[in-house]
Amino acid sequence: MSTEPSDKIRRTLAELHAELAHVDQLDVDVKELLARAAAEIEGKLQAGAASATAPAGTEASGQASLEERLADAARHFEVSHPTLAGMIETLSNALSQLGI
Q1: Can you tell me the distance from the alpha carbon of 96 to that of 59, in angstroms, rounded to the nearest whole number?
Q2: Of the candidates 84, 92, 76, the residue with the CA atom closest to the CA atom of residue 9
Q3: Cα separations (Å) of 50 from 28, 32, 65, 76, 95?
Q4: Exposed, middle or buried: residue 34 (CB in 10 Å: 0-12, 13-18, 19+)?
Q5: Residue 3: pLDDT band by 50, 70, 90 thresholds?
Q6: Which of 2, 38, 84, 92 could be bridged to 77 by S-S, CB 3.0 to 4.6 A?
Q7: Element (H, E) at 19
Q8: How far, in Å, CA of 85 to CA of 16, rounded?
Q9: How far is CA 82 from CA 9, 76, 85, 90, in A?
């Protein structure tokens, strides 16, 4: 049986945190953006099925916001930290597969 997508997301989040700890110069705004996005992702994972069964439209604006923030962060790191950009894109794809 394959690993749950939420487990992959948690592993990728842990890798992202570890990689961020090694980045010497990190823009404070980007660091805050990533921290808020990570907290939101964790909250959604903990909510589990509750968010998946939420009435249509209740998560749409939050989801778009999270996707936009992750895309902005990935673009920010594309050149300077391609490993981080890849991790963020992996998170975004995995969240999309879960419908988060």
Answers
A1: 13
A2: 92
A3: 33, 26, 19, 32, 15
A4: buried
A5: low
A6: 84
A7: helix 5-21
A8: 10
A9: 18, 10, 5, 12
DSSP 76: H
Burial class (CB in 10 A: 0-12, 13-18, 19+), 44: buried
Alpha-carbon distance of 77 to 63, in angstroms, equals: 21
Backbone angles phi, psi at 52, to 5 degrees: -70, -25
Per-residue pLDDT tens for 33-46?
Answer: 888 888 888 888 88
Chain center to CA of 21: 16
Q: How far apart are CA 71 and CA 16, in angstroms?
A: 15
On whether the pTM is more than 0.90, the answer is no
Average pLDDT over residues 72-96: 87
Minimal CA–CA distance to 65: which of 95, 97, 31?
A: 95
